[in-house]
Structures are given as structure tokens and as C-alpha cells.
Amino acid sequence: MGQVRKKAVITGASGGVGRATAVAFARSGFDVALLARGDAGLSAAREEVEALGGAALAVEVDVADAGAVARAAQRVEDDLGEVDVWVNNAMTTVFAPSWELVPADFQRAVEVTFLGQVWGTMAALRHMRPRDRGSIVNVGSALAFVGIPLQSAYCSAKFACRGFFESTRAELLHEQSGVHLSMVHLPAVNTPQFGWCQTTFDRHPQPVPPIYQPETAARAILQVALDGRREKVLGSWNKVLVACDSLFRGVGDHYAAMAAWDSQFTDQPIDPDRPANLRHPVDRVADRGSHGIFDKWAGGFWDPSFLHGLPRTARLFAAAVAGNASERARALRARAARPAG
Ligand SMILES: NC(=O)c1ccc[n+]([C@@H]2O[C@H](COP(=O)([O-])OP(=O)(O)OC[C@H]3O[C@@H](n4cnc5c(N)ncnc54)[C@H](OP(=O)(O)O)[C@@H]3O)[C@@H](O)[C@H]2O)c1
């Protein structure tokens, strides 16, 4: 008798990292439930999983809707089988300075990116806790540690994801649960995100280099799901950023202010009316796949254009240290000048 195939649920599986992750799980012998909203991407993802010999179940669901996510989980359990791994990956974002953000857009980005992860974790736990086994992997980012300009909604959501993860993990440890909850913090990845995110700018957004391919992210997510470790920060530059932020918090703000504004745009103009995926999927007619438009630059840390930029990075870091020191000195002078009492 053949071995029973394990079952994985991937949210945001119609495109980008989620799509590559669905393929990685199918390749390693899983049947895969694909959760997202867009028809074209979901159908194409289902075909990719099936071509690799896995059973695939595509479920159209908006992860910001807690009830719909719970119903999707039940459908997966009924139609595909008991879920072994649940990956919370879906996201959306809006590029704009905080003072230009429309409150409803900020709220929607947080509902999908943060609450989507919460509702997914709750739905998975509802089925996994009684069985006392299973693995949940929540997809994080370097931007769950370092806030950068123009991404306040996304960074807020990703920081919140870490808080939710730590509390829930402690609860599972408290009850000595056999369910593992993990996070994988990704670096910049070449995905369709930058072609369909909402933006107030007239240039095509891009991830802050060094840029990695979605298949590299997918391998890390699969690895963590299989070994159940607490967390993984993917990419050497990402590890440096995360470590620096905990050591030199103020310096990080100054560095982000100088280095992470223009670096989030290409020179390519965009149509002011291009459709955005904040509220509705934009792949109703055409599948966008897992890759964005940055294949040429997606060599990760070893991409020559990133390596050539390192001296500039060092200069900006020195300027950030100086900027932070002068801000602290100003605060100290203000404190000294305040009348006592
Ligand atoms: N790309 C990067 O540079 C980068 C860096 C660090 C971390 N990450 C993390 O990697 C993960 C994937 O990002 P990505 O770049 O692959 O994003 P992406 O290319 O924009 O893909 C997002 C996926 O989420 C789905 N989605 C969006 N809104 C949804 C909703 N309301 N309900 C259900 N599904 C929804 C989209 O499909 P539909 O539109 O069809 O629903 C799509 O499948 C995210 O957690 C992100 O934070 C990405």
C-alpha cells in the first residue's frame, strides 16, 4: 500500500511566494489546499500541484473574513483530509507616506496581512489542537523588525504578526501542545506584489535589494514546516538588519530614512489607473504566477548590483550613526536646559 500523502494549506497560494510554496510542498509529497481570491491564479496553481502528482483543492476565500477562513478550513478537512501543515502567507499592502494614507486603506491592509494570519492560525488550531499535532508557519519579514518609510500599514501588520505569534506560541508551550507554531522572516522577494499593490506614486515599486527568488523563500518555508523550529530569518543581509535593529534601534530609523525611500522604486512609470489588489483580486483574467519583474536582479546577496552598492550602504550607515548621535545630543541638551522641579 502506498504511503498516505500529507496535507498542507497555503494562504495566498494564487501568486508570489504562496504559489511557489504550494509547488514546493507538492514536490515534497503533499496534497495542497490553495486559499486565495483570484480565479486565474488559483486554477493555474491547482494545475501545477496536480502535475506534480498531488491532489489540489482551490478555495476562493478572503483571509480578512474570519468566518470564511474557518469554513474554508472545514472544507479542506472534509474534502482533502486532516491538515498537517498550515502556512499563513497571504498579504496586501499600500505604498504611501503615513500622512497620505486613507484610513480605510490602512485598515484593509492590516486586516488582510495581520488579521488574515490570526484567523488562519485560529482555524488551523481548531483542527490541530484536539489531534495534538500539526505545524503552522506564519510568513514574516525583515519589516517585522525594521519599519521603513512608505510601508507603515504593512510594517505595522508584520510587527503585530510577531506579537500574536509569540503569545500564541507561549500558550501552546504552556499546554505542552504537540502543535508547532513557527515564523519565517523573508528578505525582498521577486513576486507580483509590486505590480499589483496599491500606491500613491507614479513609479513602479520594487522590493528593497538584495532580491531573492520566490523558490528560495518557498524552500525555507517548507524546511521550517518539516522541522518545526521556532523561527528562521532568511538571507544574510536580512540577518544583519534584524541583528542591527535590536542593537542600534535609533540608527535603524535614520538608516531607513536615507536608504529605503528611493530604493523602493524603479525608474519605470506606472499607469495612474493600474488596478490594485487591496480589496479585490486583479488576476481574474490573467494568471501572474510566482515571479515579479525582477528576475534579472534576483540573485540575493550575491547579485552584483547589490554588492556594488555596499560602499554606499556603508556610507549611509555611518551617516545614520551620526544622525542618531546628533538627535540624542539634542535631546540631552533639551533635558539639561529644562528648569529643575
Ligand atoms: N515579496 C517580498 O519582497 C516579501 C518580503 C518579505 C516578506 N514577504 C512576505 O511573503 C508573503 C507573500 O508575499 P508576496 O510578495 O508573495 O505577495 P503577492 O505577490 O502580492 O501575493 C499575495 C498573495 O496573497 C493573496 N491575497 C491577497 N489578498 C488576499 C485576501 N484578502 N485573501 C486571500 N488571499 C489574498 C494573493 O492572491 P489573490 O489576489 O488571488 O487573493 C496572492 O496569492 C507575505 O506574507 C509577505 O509579507 C514578501
How does this structure look, described?
The chain has 341 residues and is of the alpha/beta class. The chain has one domain: NAD(P)-binding Rossmann-like Domain (Rossmann fold, 3-Layer(aba) Sandwich), CATH 3.40.50. The chain has helices at residues 16-27, 39-51, 66-79, 103-131, 152-174, 193-196, 214-227, 236-247, 249-259, 304-308, 310-337; strands spanning 6-11, 30-36, 56-60, 85-88, 94-95, 134-141, 179-186, 188-189, 198-199, 203-205, 211-212, 231-233, 265-269. It is globular, with a radius of gyration of 21 Å. Bound molecules: NADP nicotinamide-adenine-dinucleotide phosphate. Residues 11-18, 36-38, 41, 62-64, 89-92, 112, 139, 141, 186, 188-189, 191-193, 207, 277, 281, 283 line the site of NADP nicotinamide-adenine-dinucleotide phosphate.
Total separate domains: 1
Structural class comes to: alpha/beta
Order of helices and strands: EHEHEHEEHEHEEHEEEHEHHEHH
Q: What is the level-2 CATH architecture name?
A: 3-Layer(aba) Sandwich
Estimate the global geometry from the Cα principal axes.
globular
CATH topology: Rossmann fold
* Strand coverage percent: 15-25%
Tell me which oligomeric state these chains represent. single chain
Low-confidence regions: none
Strand order of the largest sheet: 3-2-1-4-6-7-12
Largest sheet: 7 strands, parallel
Which ligands occur here? NADP nicotinamide-adenine-dinucleotide phosphate
Amino-to-carboxy terminus distance: 82 Å
For the record, what CATH class applies? Answer: Alpha Beta
Number of strands: 13
Radius of gyration, whole Å: 21 Å
